[in-house]
Amino acid sequence: MKILFRNFFLFCIIGLLLGECISRAFYTTSDIPSRVIDKNDIQKYKPNQNGFWVGGTHTWHINKDGWPGDLPDSHNNLITIIGDSYIENFMNPDSCRQSMVLKKLQPKYNFYEVSRSGISFIEALQIATHLDSLNPIKQLIYVHDSDFTESISEIKKMSDITQYNSKTNKIIPGQIKSAGIKKILYNWKFIYYLYTNYYVGGRHKAKTSPTVKTKTSHSVSKTELNEINKLLSYSNNKYNKKNITLVLRPNPNSEIIRLLKENNFNILILKAEDNKNWSFDHDAHWTCLGHWEAAKLVAKNIN
């Protein structure tokens, strides 16, 4: 029996090592950047990280400020870009990034991009407040319906996302969940591959990074609309939104748009006759084509 257990243990060890070598050689999973929380309670990435996307088709990198992509050469005529996983754009090369495409379409401006999966509407406003120190002439915050509902703890409490509590009228900073376990999981490529492809709870993550959250349009109840109105009212009183424009993905909820207009937010809706070809077949996030199409619509409204 001891020999059986010993052989089984050795078999498992050899299998894990072999699987790890194969996973690393063929890039069966994506490299995932580590996160930190700065002094302003903003979740960002540890600076100067690099990694491969699944399949090894391209790499991503985190700049010295802790955000994906390159920093602008200058802060003159600066426009900031703030968004979630759609803007984070790990599934495409950096040449398809909104900041890169907009720079090509509007070369007289410089673009500073801040993106991270899970950035809520309220956290985006907080980030914009801190970016005011760069003296941007305009701040573009890319949002969609769920970015508003996810901003409100009364609708659904999410500890890893910065939220607004309408009962206390306060902001609840997001926390990094299970940082130690995630570090081990992401570093063991074979274990991570098994987790994303065969673990029942993680099966839905197999085709995307765990830092990626696909968001689609959804109906909003009267209770949720009431909470969103409280959120927008709070935002009006707390943040200076004069230079902020909310860029909404195609087909947003009409009631949310009504509330945004009533609360005097500057909005730009990305209207497209057919935006289905903006996304991957297996994933709602934008392809390079989608980023170009979105950037073209944004570029027309910058001047």
How many β-strand stretches?
11
Tally of separate helices: 10
Topology pattern, helix = H, strand = E: HEEEEEHHEHEHEEHHHEHEH
Distance between the termini: 77 Å
What CATH calls the topology is: Rossmann fold
Envelope shape: globular
Mean pLDDT: 84
Could you say which structural class the secondary elements and strand pairing correspond to?
alpha/beta
Helix content class: 25-40%
* Overall number of structural domains: 1
Labels describing this entry:
11 strands, Rossmann fold, single chain, 36% helix, two-stranded antiparallel ribbon, alpha/beta, 303 residues, 5-stranded parallel sheet, 10 helices
Structure overview:
By secondary structure, the chain is of the alpha/beta class. Helix content is 36%, strand content 15%. Helix 9 links the parallel strand 10 (244-248) and strand 11 (266-269). Helix 3 (98-105) crosses helix 10.
Write the layout of secondary structure elements.
Elements: H1 2-26, E1 35-37, E2 43-45, E3 50-52, E4 59-61, E5 78-83, H2 85-88, H3 98-105, E6 110-115, H4 121-131, E7 138-143, H5 145-149, E8 163-165, E9 170-172, H6 179-187, H7 189-198, H8 222-238, E10 244-248, H9 254-262, E11 266-269, H10 288-299
Parallel strand pairs: 5-6, 5-7, 7-10, 10-11
Antiparallel strand pairs: 1-2, 3-4, 8-9
Helix pairs in contact: 1-7, 3-10, 8-9
